[in-house]
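dumping this here before i forget
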Amino acid sequence: MTKNTFDLERQLLSDYDSKLTVEGVSGERLAYRLGVLSKIGLTEDNGSRRPGFSKEERDAKNWIIKWMEEAGMQVREDGAGNIIGRLDGKHPDKPVIMSGSHVDTVPNGGHFDGTIGVLSALEVAQSWKETGYAPEKPLEIVAFTDEEGSRFNGGLTGSEAMMGDTDIKAMQAKEDFDGRSFEEVIKDVGLSVEGFKSAERPHSDIESYVEVHIEQGKRLEKEQLPCGIVTGIAGPYWLRLTFKGQAGHAGNTPMTDRQDALVAAGHFIHYISHLPQKINDSAVATVGNIEVKPNGTNVIPGEVIVYVDIRDIFENTRQQLIDAIIQTAEDISESWAITLTCETVHNVPPVPIKKDLQDKLKTAMQEKGIRPFYLPSGAGHDAMIVGQHVPSAMIFVRSKNGISHNPAEWSDLNDCVQAVHILKDYIESCQSL
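structure:
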């Protein structure tokens, strides 16, 4: 299928069960809106390219504004470019129930990551308008700015600004893929550094946050379930380990007289692949970046830098894994007469989801005849940032073959609409005063 004939709406509706269009929730409308956004930044591979702070992200946000207004919401944009639609409810003075996600994408991504979270929340608001439901508490839907971070090799920019977590000086020092400064880039879409500073809002304004997102994994597919309950969001912890040995000639140095940093690093990489499952089922550790010096075919490696990404949804078990990885590196370095240094280069705390929020989602699923299934989120989301400050929950939607950040990313419309119904019931269960 070529770019000119790509039709996401038609694909989504091809096997849609129209019986799911009920209680004001419309799968046909959701498919249409996904289709509209899919055409913004459409790539030659029929993927999506909407970097943060781009014209394409701005165009997608303009559609979100239009649809928020159609749902009867008051719409505003904060200083970080976050789009916020609000329904006051019967008690506008109460803290808000918030839901949303993002509409930016990776350079050649799919059409569901982030987008489905914003559009699912919009379906809830639209269903209320169509059925005449009046919430007790205010509802806010947010399309966060620059979650993916492909522009500045970062991410979660809008949610960090709203929660007051932005390091403005660090952001000002960044350059994008065209060598342009942060201030230059955000000016293109009408934003400013001063505006970013003003985007922070009191955490007490928000009672709780909930986000629908595609799973980006295969657990739900293996369970043959449309959606699941997230138990926690694994905070990434990055270690940089430097193994220092002795560089030497590959031909003239006997095998018995070497301090090969790469051999030691290789043993380390092998051993840590078996550590996470010894500590916790949701723990993972990944080596995806290695620097070998001097990196010559005929030179024994004298120095190897290994980056380890360590994640778990609980702080205590993540720390146990970190300690075990460092101890493994120390033991291997000692046995190979290698010098080791360790440095933390990135640390985002995990966000466990509170049991009472999980229980509300469980009830909503049972009432809809869906078997509750619990799974962790290994990836970071806006809910990870918001959840560090206010109670937050997540609903995952089944991903075909677990593919994400790729034009082949796919979630069936039937699954997406069932997740909307769960989200709707969940938000309504949060309305009691």
